Recover the amino acids of this structure.
């Protein structure tokens, strides 16, 4: 069962939202404006499924509740001619503790430095490959 349709107008575009008991549908030709801020401005009490734009990393991110709790959402990698994604870029320093997700492997293009006091945990069934 859907709730009342609400038209949202902001400047140059108009969107419509239909609320349902299990979520919301958004449609139109405009844009959805997500919360944005620096890494330091992340909410103190995030919930699984939260999304935002991180102005420190210039990436969209989502909160999974697992380690690492905040992660990038799509669009990763540098682009070449005609905006084709042909490279994957990663940082050269690990600045915070990180645990490879159970049942997953991780890859990093090196060289990479793990900062003093920082731990990267690789479980018995996981692999971290540095190329």
């Amino acid at each position: 069962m859907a709730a009342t349709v609400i038209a949202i107008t902001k400047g140059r575009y108009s969107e419509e939202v239909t609320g349902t008991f299990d979520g919301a549908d958004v449609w139109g030709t405009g844009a959805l404006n997500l919360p944005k801020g620096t890494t330091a401005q992340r909410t103190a009490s995030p919930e699984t499924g939260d999304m935002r734009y991180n102005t420190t990393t210039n990436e969209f991110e989502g909160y999974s509740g697992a380690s690492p709790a905040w992660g990038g959402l799509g669009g990763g990698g540098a682009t070449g001619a005609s905006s084709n994604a042909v490279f994957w870029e990663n940082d050269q320093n690990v600045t915070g503790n990180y645990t490879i997700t159970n049942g997953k492997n991780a890859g990093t293009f090196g060289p990479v430095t793990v900062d003093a006091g920082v731990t990267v945990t690789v479980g018995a069934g996981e692999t971290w490959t540095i190329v």
